[in-house]
Amino acid sequence: MTELDNPRPRTWSWHSPILRVVVSADRNGASLRYDVRLVGELDLASVGSLTDALEALRDERPELVVIDLSEMRFVDARGLSALVDIDRDLRAVGGSLVLARPDPHVRRVLTLTAVDTQIDVR
Predict the structure, then answer these.
(1) Were both Cys, which of 1, 34, 44, 53 would link to 78 (CB 3.0–4.6 Å)?
(2) How much is the pLDDT for 9?
């Protein structure tokens, strides 16, 4: 039995000076879901925290990754690119990505760049 076989959620986090990434894993039967909360700014200087966090989870092949953007105040082109890459990688293994509750400024950037046409934004 691995830690992920345990039905209780696990939580861990990665930090950079301008971004905090908090990840919770929850297994419901055979289904694995990750809830990721981004706090701060997702840009060239901080995107490594997000990619490190999600690379560590890649081998688990989650069915769903939900990234909560309600506390993320800024995203630049590199941050958007990372979100698109994460979505592509998840789809390649049968998973999906949802960007949840974006801050109004972040939602506008997602719309202006048409990222919201590629990734499910709720």
Answers:
(1) 44
(2) 54
